[in-house]
Amino acid sequence: MIKLHDLYFKPFISEQEIDTAVQKMVDSIADDLGDEVPVFVGILNGSFMLVSDFVKKYPKPCEVTFIKLASYEGVKSTEDIQRLIGLTQDLTGRTVVILEDIIDSGKTLEEVHRIFENENVKQLLIATLFYKPEAYDKDFKLHYVGMEIPNKFIVGYGLDYDGLGRDLPDVYQLKTTQHMTNLVLFGPPGAGKGTQANYLKEKYDLIHISTGDVFRFNIKNETALGMLAKSYMDKGELVPDQVTIEMLNKEVEKNAGANGFIFDGFPRTNGQAKALDKLMDSKDSQINAMVALEVDDNVLVKRLLERGKTSGRADDADEKIIRNRIKEYYNKTAILKDYYAAQDKYFGVDGVGSIEDITERLSAVIDKL
Ligand code: 5GP
Ligand code: MG
């Protein structure tokens, strides 16, 4: 991932793939033109790198020139095309091949056609390395296309974001969700997970997604997913991961502009951890860390028995039940600890001490992410 000005971009097309696409364009154009000496016209600024690589590969004599147009502001195509440097030579009777880095809305191309309208060239061929079919709303024929790409803003290989990125040999795509901090929070019963989640949420402006709460919300409000989940529960079956993931997806989408999420109660299995990775990846994001509160069993038992005196929760009143719940927690989370540790994303945090002390320790981990 790279950062240009205020935005994050992720690797999209490698130097090698670009090279292959350029070579392919060269081959078909050289094939079609035979012994004709073409004039390649690059559209500055973006096409400088393409033109350079292209003509070095071109197997026969050719001429090269440039015109300079500007249509982009920041990450958006604008209506206004400015002609900064026009044609400086007579191209009457010549075969002209426009070399564009990218064709987006086609407005620049329209201006190019206007420029050549009265030039009496033999033929005007359009070649573009990148083409965004979803954005293109003109009728001009594109004779040679290196690669079709989705309608997302890219940088690199001549293309810039506010001046930066033209020098990059690879192409990067704008991340749709910007830099988020996403945590998976773990802790045995009685570790103070809920309390800490509340503090972290405030401190880092994160959205706390408790799977239990999400389930209850969907079922109570009889959403389609809630009804689906309930149909499994009513049969005494486990709700399939896909249903849970879809519910989490909805929560993530509801908060698309968030600084990040704290996942609580999910994942519980390797399969779920992978599904969560996939979900975050589809949002151009990632799980940054699994943070687990570590508390000695005897301390947990003492805390929970204490809580049982006032909470009235039956499962907080019996030491044997409590010890079983703790054991079950470790049995279940061991796999996940391994899963995240393998990616260097596991962080155990000492959960014994005052609430403030523990928050401090958690913050120290998060601040380093
Ligand atoms: P169009 O006029 O077809 O909308 O856009 C063409 C020009 O806009 C290109 O020559 C390029 O300068 C700029 N452009 C279009 N799409 C992108 C993009 O994804 N990234 C960058 N950096 N520039 C783009
Ligand atoms: Mg351009």
Automatic annotation (TrEMBL):
Its main location: cytoplasm. Residues 18-161 form the Phosphoribosyltransferase domain. Gene3D superfamilies: 3.40.50.2020, P-loop containing nucleotide triphosphate hydrolases. Residues 210-239 are annotated as: NMP. Pathway: Purine metabolism; AMP biosynthesis via salvage pathway; AMP from ADP: step 1/1. Keywords: ATP-binding, Cytoplasm, Kinase, Nucleotide biosynthesis, Nucleotide-binding, Transferase. The keyword Cytoplasm applies. Its EC number is 2.7.4.3. GO terms for molecular function: AMP kinase activity. PROSITE patterns: ADENYLATE_KINASE. It catalyses: AMP + ATP = 2 ADP. Pfam families: ADK, Pribosyltran. It is found in: Cytoplasm. The keyword tRNA-binding does not apply. It comes from the Bacteria. AMP binds at residues 211, 216, 237-239, 265-268, 272, 313, 325. ATP binds at residues 190-195, 307, 353. Consists of three domains, a large central CORE domain and two small peripheral domains, NMPbind and LID, which undergo movements during catalysis. The LID domain closes over the site of phosphoryl transfer upon ATP binding. Assembling and dissambling the active center during each catalytic cycle provides an effective means to prevent ATP hydrolysis. Monomer. Catalyzes the reversible transfer of the terminal phosphate group between ATP and AMP. Plays an important role in cellular energy homeostasis and in adenine nucleotide metabolism. Belongs to the adenylate kinase family. This is Adenylate kinase.
